[in-house]
Amino acid sequence: MIVLQIGLCAFRLGMPYECHMALQELCTASYTGSGGGAIRLRELLAQGMIQVRGYDKTAEQERAEKKRQIPYHMHLSLDLIDTAHLVSAMLLELPNIALSRLRGDTGNKRRVISRTFQYYLRTSAKQAFSGPAENTRDHVMSASRCLMSCDWRKAYEIIASIRAWQSLEAGTMQSTLAKVKDLVKVEGMRTFVLTYSSFYNSLSTERLSETFELEPSKVHSVISKMIINEELRASWDQPTASVIIRRTEPTRLQSLGVNVAQKCLSTLEHNEKLIEARSGGLSGRGDERDDGRDWNNRDRNNRGRGMRGRYQGQSGGRYGRDYKRDDRNRDGGRFERNYTLLLNKQA
Predict the structure, then answer these.
(1) Residue 149: CB partners within 8 Å, gap ≥ 6?
(2) What single-letter DSSP state applies at residue 71?
(3) Which pTM does this prediction carry?
(4) Of 95, 168, 211, 281, which cross-links 190 as Cys (Cβ 3.0–4.6 Å)?
């Protein structure tokens, strides 16, 4: 309850990052339970009880749960919590998606702020026809598509039409919507700059100020922060009050070429491992294995010679006679072979 109140307070003050960090765990399906997120959240907030199928509660357990429930006048609106979470995720995730596309980050390299929002956005993009918004999620997804196309006015109109704002007082609702409008303007401008910076050589501060209805000082502050954070490769031209774009980011074709090269390299390494496994070991190390085997044989022979020398000094015993007989037979056979070869050469 306290964490949710902190998140809602941060949202009313215009701090989407703090709001998202406070509401992320409680509003994701993995935490609240798959399928019944709102029902599970209501139980966590002690605003209702859940009847689990196949599990019967005793009378004492039901009375204990009823005692833990909070009064009705202290209930928090679940639609308002969902709205604050999705709107804050939209304001954070859309510029991040534009930045990932500008840098060419794909797959695991892409930074993810809200997996829940990205899943909803992908699901909404796959629909062949998007009808009128019916719930909070549909409203936020429609506003996200408008903001990605840099139509911030329509995006704000869709967000302001969500019915969850009616649960707030008139003064609180107006101040909260004013904060949301300012954030939509700023994040819409950031999304526009990151999306279309590869098509421009320079951007005028006056033009950005007129398009997004922001003060020139605010535009200068936002762009400067993007340059400092290395989100935008650009520099200021003070005489013309414009931003000069530096062409250092790879193009879409170059990024795809790098990805293809990396995949080819990984495929080549995988094939080499399969060939090595099929051949029975690592390729290019046969000499090392042979050398190791020869050294093992030499060590074994040296140990045997030491044993023979040890037992040859004994006067009797089975080992002494056997080793002497083996040495005699081996030396005699070597002498006969060498003598035969010498006679054949002389003949």
Answers:
(1) none
(2) P
(3) 0.65
(4) 95
Sheet with 242-245, strands from edge to edge, namely 202-204, 242-245, 234-237
Identify whether the C-beta of residue 257 lies closer than 8 Å to the C-beta of residue 249. no
Q: What angle do CA 11, 13, 14 make, to 5 degrees?
A: 65
Measured distance CA(345)–CA(158) in Å, rounded: 107
Q: Which two tokens stand for residue 195?
A: 């999306």
126-160 CB burial, b ≥16 within 10 A, e <16: eeeeeeebeebbbbbbbbbbbbbebebeebbebbe
Q: Which helix (H) or strand (E) holds 344?
A: helix 318-346
Q: CA 124 to CA 142: how far, in whole Å?
A: 9
201-216 burial, b if ≥16 CB within 10 A, otherwise e?
Answer: eebbbeebbebbebee
Cβ neighbors of 280 (< 8 A, separation 6 or more) are none
**φ, ψ (nearest 5 deg) of residue 159:** -65, -40
Question: Is 235 in contact with 244 (CB distance < 8 Å)?
Answer: yes
Structure tokens at 217: 């000082």
Q: Which amino acid is at 302?
A: N
Task: Scan for tokens 């406070």, then name that residue.
Answer: 22
- Amino acid sitting at position 194: L
14/170 Cα distance (integer angstroms): 17
Taken as a whole, the chain contains a residue count of 347
- Render pLDDT for 245-295 as a digit per residue (tens, 0 to 9): 887 666 778 778 888 998 999 999 999 988 888 887 544 444 444 444 454
Half-sphere exposure of 20 (CA within 13 A, CB side): 17
In angstroms, the CA 8 to CA 18 distance is 10
